[in-house]
């Protein structure tokens, strides 16, 4: 495989790499690592009902509920796969024992750790796909100082191509230094940079009528090529863990995360008619930057007067986030056909040099208590006093400031009825971010205020037999509802309530088989005056009432290590517009894969084939109320990796 890189184009985003290879659901490594069906990510591939952007119908990442090795991290740019070993969605029973949970769930990233016993290793992966994408990933682990220190890291280079015919270029580099002078102490520092020289902006489509717009020609991009995102993301920081003795432990993390966008565009096809003609707008954004410093200091005390095992956590956490935005320019090219080549000359951009500034300062002082009694009762309770302040400065406008200082709390318990059956229940109240106005809003890119949220859930875990586990529960999440109003202003339209049932089944039904399956049956509803007055529909935009996922891996002993895997995903119909007059139909997708281990000389290697959306089901995905982009079509990816 030949990688085609121009000299200045060596760096960009893991998110683009993920998009290029598809949101693969058929994955043997993730299936093996998953302890439930609620969301596990290993490397590039993700399985489970929930992801870092969708838990019970909400985004924990947009809400600010990201953790790095269990410590608070205000993520502006995603953690590179060259640093991250895996990610886990903690919700329901999997959040039991997590000291400070959140109503929208927690996304907990685990870092790639050095090997024990002073060993060193590396892994090289080369990937190509049927759309023309090409990728190189390198990971390494180098032991130092007789195993008391180590360096880990890697790099990624990619030429992704996407389902809408656009393409991009990226490169990442990550490095971490680990120091472990003794068993009771571990420290590390890391740095990661991701650069995108260009990533062309595909179209977002809206319809002139109360129906979905027609799909265009598959895998064909009708310009303009100059409307490309360019930017850099950076993450760096450090972690410390020190056990003073068997009872006292200190953990600390300090992080910086930023996104520096050199250019950004929205490519809009508005009011599309059945004949495929639409009004084309290109909106160009001035350079912008978002940066956040965050961290947490946690002191834990464990004491165990038999049979009462107890632990207390004292937490001090905070963040300082600044968001600088320029203005935008809109270029109206009139009504055109989506099938016609569209390559207008690049305009001269003239942005106001003045910028808007959003400043968020937030701190938490928390106390949490855990109780384990005789392997039968688990009790977790916590309280956090948070102070939140946001200042917004706009050119030619007076400064606006909002603040809040709520007392947040959580309480959960689990009762182990028998060695194979446990029940749990919990409630959590939080203060979370409410996201940013989408690109098709009249107040595009504006950050919304923090909102108060709440969650109640209960359920059971049943060990059906030693290698099969069932988790089932009910939940209710409630928070203010933000979406586009009749004037395309992204604002609060009422409250949204998600009630539902979630089911997870995972394990080995037979020696050669492993499965992870789950379902969410949900009743999402919008509440408030807007519904009663007919200004907004009773169902929130983009929320299906049913989701089913099943992943299986078959490792037949007769095939000498070769494994076959499959993933089946079904998403029910969902409202696509604020008034609920249009909906996206239900869709079922099938992914297929295989992994074949072999020896490349003396080096253990593997070949990985992954066919995403094998039946090539074409459909739209939502980019906001009444705004659509095509979902990824069929994609075949081939990866060869070798280890040393």
Characteristics of this structure?
mainly beta, Maltoporin, Chain A, 3 helices, globular
Give a written overview of the molecule.
The chain is an all-beta fold and 644 residues long. It has a single domain (14-214, 221-327, 354-643), classed as Maltoporin, Chain A. Helix content is 3%, strand content 59%. It has three helices and 36 strands. The longest helix has 8 residues, at 14-21. Residues 1-26 have low confidence and may be disordered.
Low-confidence stretches: 1-26
Oligomer: single chain
- Count of separate structural domains: 1
Rg, alpha carbons: 25 Å
CATH homologous superfamily name? Answer: TonB-dependent receptor, beta-barrel domain
Basic shape? globular
CATH class: Mainly Beta
Secondary-structure class: mainly beta
The end-to-end span amounts to 21 Å
CATH A-level architecture? Beta Barrel
Proportion of residues in extended strands:
over 45%
The number of helical runs is 3
Report the helical percentage: under 10%
């Amino acid at each position: 495989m030949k990688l085609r890189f121009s000299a200045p184009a060596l760096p960009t985003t893991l998110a683009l790499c993920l998009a290029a290879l598809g949101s693969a659901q058929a994955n043997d490594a993730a299936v093996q690592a998953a302890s439930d069906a609620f969301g596990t990510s290993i490397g590039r591939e993700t399985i489970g009902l929930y992801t870092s952007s969708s838990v019970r119908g909400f985004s924990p990442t947009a809400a600010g509920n990201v953790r790095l090795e269990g410590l608070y991290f205000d993520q502006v740019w995603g953690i590179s796969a060259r640093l991250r070993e895996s990610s886990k969605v903690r919700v329901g029973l999997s959040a039991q024992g997590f000291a400070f949970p959140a109503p929208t769930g927690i996304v907990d990233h685990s870092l790639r750790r050095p090997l024990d016993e002073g060993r060193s290793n590396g892994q090289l992966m080369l990937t190509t796909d049927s759309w023309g994408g090409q990728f190189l990933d390198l990971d390494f682990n180098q032991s130092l100082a007789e195993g008391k220190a180590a360096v880990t890291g890697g790099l990624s280079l990619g030429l992704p191509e996407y389902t809408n015919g656009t393409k991009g270029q990226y490169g990442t580099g990550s490095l971490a230094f680990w120091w472990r002078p003794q068993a009771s102490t571990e420290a590390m520092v890391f740095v990661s940079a991701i650069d995108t020289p260009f990533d062309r902006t595909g179209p977002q489509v809206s319809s002139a009528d109360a129906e979905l717009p027609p799909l265009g020609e598959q895998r064909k991009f009708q310009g303009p090529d100059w409307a490309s995102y360019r930017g850099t993301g950076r993450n760096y920081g450090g972690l410390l863990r020190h056990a003073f003795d068997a009872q006292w432990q200190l953990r600390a993390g300090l992080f910086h995360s930023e996104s520096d966008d050199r250019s950004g565009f929205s490519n809009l096809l508005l009011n599309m008619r059945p004949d495929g003609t639409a009004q084309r707008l290109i909106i160009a954004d001035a350079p912008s930057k978002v940066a956040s410093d965050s961290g947490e200091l946690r002191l834990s005390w464990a004491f165990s007067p038999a049979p009462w095992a107890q632990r207390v956590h004292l937490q001090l956490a905070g963040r300082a986030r600044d968001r600088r935005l320029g203005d935008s320019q809109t270029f109206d090219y009139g009504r055109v056909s989506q099938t016609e080549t569209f390559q207008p000359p690049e305009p001269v951009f003239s942005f106001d040099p003045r910028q808007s500034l959003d400043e968020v300062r937030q701190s938490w002082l928390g106390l949490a208590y855990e109780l384990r009694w005789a392997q039968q009762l688990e009790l977790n309770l916590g309280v956090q006093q948070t102070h939140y302040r946001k200042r917004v400065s706009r050119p030619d406008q007076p400064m606006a400031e909002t603040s809040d200082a709520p007392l947040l709390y959580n309480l959960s318990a689990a009762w182990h009825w028998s060695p194979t059956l446990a029940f749990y229940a919990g409630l959590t109240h939080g203060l979370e971010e409410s996201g940013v106005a989408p690109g098709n809003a009249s107040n595009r890119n504006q950050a919304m205020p923090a909102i108060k949220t709440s969650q109640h859930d209960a359920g059971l875990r049943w060990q059906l037999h030693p290698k099969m586990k069932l988790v089932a529960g009910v939940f209710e999440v409630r928070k203010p509802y933000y979406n586009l109003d009749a004037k395309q202003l992204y604002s609060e339209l009422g409250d949204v309530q998600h009630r539902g049932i979630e089911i997870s089944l995972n394990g080995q039904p037979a020696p050669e088989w492993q499965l992870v399956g789950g379902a969410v049956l949900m009743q999402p509803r919008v509440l408030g005056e807007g519904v009663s007055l007919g200004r907004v529909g009773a169902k929130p935009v983009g929320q299906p009432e049913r989701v089913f996922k099943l992943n299986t891996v078959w490792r037949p002993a007769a095939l000498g290590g070769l494994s076959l895997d499959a993933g089946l995903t079904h998403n029910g119909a969902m409202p696509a517009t604020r008034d609920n007059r249009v909906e996206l139909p239900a869709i079922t997708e099938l992914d297929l894969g295989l992994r074949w281990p072999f020896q490349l000389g003396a080096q253990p290697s593997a070949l990985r084939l992954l066919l995403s959306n094998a039946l090539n089901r074409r459909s739209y995905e939502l980019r906001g109320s009444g705004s659509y982009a095509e979902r990824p079509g069929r994609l075949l990816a081939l990866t060869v990796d070798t280890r040393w």
